[in-house]
Give the backbone structure.
Amino acid sequence: MTTIPARPRVLLRLVLRLLLRLLLGAALLLAVAGCGKEGSPPVKGPQPEDLPVYQVDTAFQLPASPTWERAERRGHLVVGVKEDQPYMGEKDPSSGRYSGFDIEIAKMMSAALGFDPKTIEFKTIASANRETALQNGQIDYYVGTYTINDNRKRQVGFAGPYFIAGQSLLVRKDEKDINGPEDLKGKKVCSATGSTPYQRLEKEYPEADLVAYDTYSVCVDNLLTYQVDAVSTDNTILMGYAAKVPEELKVVGTPFSKEPYGIGVPRSDNALRFALDDALAAIEKNGDWKRAYDATLGLSGVPAPPPPPIDRYPAS
Ligand code: GLU
């Protein structure tokens, strides 16, 4: 049963705060939908007609991979992604369509493994749940700003890297005091549970007042409603949020980590991991990687960097 606070003042304050949150939330939604202030044109997201079409390798077989075999029996792949990271992995709530650079990587991998990308079943999985989702077979592989590191390699396998991001900070446009991680002392900083940026802040910037949620979009909502002072995660993700509401948010400072993005696979499925490494090498060579980047993350204004070398580490 809910108890009503005895003091009406407390109640009034609660109602006012809720109202403010609702108003600001609606403002963000409007801005995101492209109905922002006059003179701020809607941000153009990835357009379906600009995206490359990938050739499906219909003759492909991978009997050594239990994950591939299971997908073959099922008839399609199940791929774990993010749904609230503009330019990287974002789901359009009205069409249900996913778009972004990670989504294109997922599609290119599907085509290389012999499955039409149109048949992919995308599943949204939060940062903290990626390893479990791969371990219990909920997904075949994962493409969603997933940093390769030794700790995670004990639990899952990684093909790639296919991109290198770096940890950064997102603040409100009028913020003057926060220009880098050394300015976070006593500031409320939001990141996602189970993410490497959260872990880095906890370890290397212990004087920051850390707050964690499942997703970065909740952090951004908290930033816009003055509940937190900064959001910290990869620059790729933060640039997407800033681009959606440029009159409210900005990315500050220079990236202070290296986040090599990998495709997560079940740890024991080396055959799948090597097949994905081969497929990544092929798309980097044939130009599809660059075309996909230009049509997605490239819209944030950063030209395509050269793709990083693939780390085909031995089977374990
Ligand atoms: N790349 C970082 C990580 O894998 C942050 C982004 C995310 O949470 O997906 O933890």
User: Anything to note?
Assistant: The first helix runs from residue 8 to 32. The chain has ten helices and 13 strands. Residues 23-42 have pLDDT under 50 and may be disordered. Residues 127, 144-147, 192, 195-197, 233-234, 259 surround glutamic acid (CB under 6 Å).
